[in-house]
Write a structure and sequence with these properties.
It is built from 14 helices and 20 strands. By secondary structure, it is α+β, with helices and mostly antiparallel strands. Residues 1-10 have a biased composition (Pro residues).
Length: 502
């Protein structure tokens, strides 16, 4: 390296500016070194060997010899103009890593909390308990065993509770019970309303002669007034209360030209009203050919008591008729509790009685009919009738058609076991001789669990019989709880009504 090759003083560089040191730096021009003069050569010759060696070492070439060590500063490098250090180190911090890791977790937890709260509080409109009715069979009435008389024949019947029962199906003489048919046929041709009297009649000597002839034949009769008149209603009273045969003939004569015409009309009327088993040959029943089966008389009694005028008359123990006097009813049972009619009969040795009695059972009035025929005395017909009526009392008491505790339905839920719906009380109705009733239900449970405890309301069962009806509350046999939290959380589609079966 020649003197011309030695490095020049350091120029003003970017590093020098950054470090803040500009000493010894030039503006970039190069200075040329001159060779030593004579004085400098003498000074070098007078130095010691050690000094010479040191100088040699100092003057020998070295790396970066051109750098002025004294110009190197030890302070911080100066920043370029306009530069500012960052506020946060740009390397990823621990907090930033944690934030990146926790954000998804926070989102998941938040969604889980929202889902849980929604499912736990969601109303149960889409998953309400379902109620299904069960088939309910009602209990029929027990068979009836009436106290039939030892002699003669008899029948019993209760309107609306099936067909009459009879001890015999043989037709026997009706005697004066025939007059019931006469009254029905007369009123069919000349109707009367309740409170109406109908036309008034005066009587002739011929009528009074008929009265005497009736008495002579052994038939029951009442005199015709000599001066007073009798109305149609009063003649019917004498016919049904006093059993006056001559009054029967008189009433028929007001409508028909002959008894034969009346007989045809009477039998046609019987057929038109489905009163089979009855045959009429005269208005009074004096002929033994006026016959009827015991069961047919039950139907006849029902027909007669359905007419308010006849029902009013036959219930009277006695009546005062003008020009005739006091007429007493031949039916001695009218003084017995509940007896309301109908008619006695006597022919030869046979005593007959057709009776209607009302029995109060709860809020229902039950009317029973009894026909007793062929008894050997008036007292016997009354005694046998009383025995038959008494034998009907127990069978006519309400029959428990659906007992308490009967399962009538089931409550099912998507989350629990089925719960039975049962009747709380007995449901009893009036039945007779194997009669049946019909059960119907209205079932349903409350929307909230606090009203679905054991014994809470689940509807009502109604039993309808021929004459009355009864109801029993339906209750839950066990609680029907709401779904637990786990079921709610694991069945979102069902709660929201989005499941396939919803």
């Amino acid at each position: 390296m020649t003197p011309s090759d030695s490095p020049s003083p350091p120029a003003l560089t970017r590093r020098a500016l950054r470090s803040g040191s500009t000493r010894g730096a030039t503006d970039g021009s190069v200075a040329v070194a001159e060779p030593p003069g004579p004085d400098e050569a003498d000074a070098a010759a007078s130095t010691s060997p050690d000094e010479a060696a040191a100088e040699a070492a100092a003057s020998s070439p070295r790396a970066l010899a051109w750098v002025d060590e004294s110009a190197l500063g030890t302070g911080a490098a100066a920043a370029p103009q306009g530069w500012e250090p960052p506020l946060v180190e740009r390397w990823p911090s621990r907090f930033a890593w944690r934030r990146a890791a926790l954000t998804p977790l926070v989102v998941v937890v938040t969604l889980a909390l929202v889902y849980s709260a929604t499912m736990l509080l969601w109303p149960l409109h889409a998953v309400q308990p379902q109620v299904e009715a069960s088939s309910v069979t009602t209990t029929p009435a027990a068979a009836v065993s009436p106290a039939w008389p030892a002699d003669g024949s008899a029948a019993v019947g209760v309107p609306g509770l099936g067909s009459p029962l009879a001890s015999s199906g043989q037709a026997v003489p009706m005697a004066s019970i025939t007059k019931v048919v006469t009254a029905l046929v007369v009123l069919d041709g000349m109707p009367l309303g309740v409170g109406e009297s109908g036309p008034s009649y005066t009587f002739t000597s011929a009528d009074r002669a008929d009265y005497r002839a009736t008495i002579a034949s052994g038939e029951s009769a009442l005199p015709f007034p000599t001066e007073d008149a009798l109305t149609q209603y009063q003649l019917l009273e004498g016919l049904l209360i006093g059993s006056a045969g001559n009054y029967a003939d008189f009433l028929v004569a007001q409508q028909y030209p002959s008894q034969a015409a009346y007989v045809r009309a009477a039998n046609e009327w019987l057929a038109a009203h489905a009163l089979t088993g009855i045959t009429v040959v005269d208005p009074s029943g004096i002929s033994a050919r006026n016959v009827a089966t015991p069961a047919a008389l039950i139907s006849l009694g029902q027909q007669a008591m359905a007419d308010p005028v006849i029902a009013e008359i036959v219930a009277k123990p006695s009546v005062e008729l003008p020009g005739v006097g006091l007429v007493e009813n031949t039916n001695a049972l009218l003084g017995d509790p509940g007896v309301v009619g109908v008619k006695t009969g006597f022919l030869g040795r046979d005593y007959n009685l057709l009776t209607a009695r009302d029995l109060e059972i709860g809020d229902t009035t039950v009317r029973a009919f009894v026909a007793v025929l062929g008894q050997d005395s008036a007292e016997a017909r009354f005694a046998e009738t009383r025995a038959l009526l008494a034998s009907l009392d127990a069978p006519l008491q309400p029959t428990v058609a659906v007992p308490a505790g009967t399962v009538v339905g089931t409550v099912t839920t998507l989350w629990g076991d089925p719960v039975q719906l049962v009747t709380r009380d007995d449901a009893a109705v009036i039945l007779w001789n194997g009669g049946t009733s019909v059960a119907s239900m209205q079932l349903g449970v409350a929307d909230t669990a606090d009203a679905r405890e054991e014994g809470d309301a689940g509807g009502v069962l109604r039993v309808t019989g021929p004459l009355d009806a009864a109801e029993s509350p339906v209750v839950l046999a066990a609680p029907v709880a709401d779904p637990d939290p786990w079921w709610r959380l694991t069945h979102p589609l069902e709660l929201l009504g989005l499941s396939p079966g919803a």
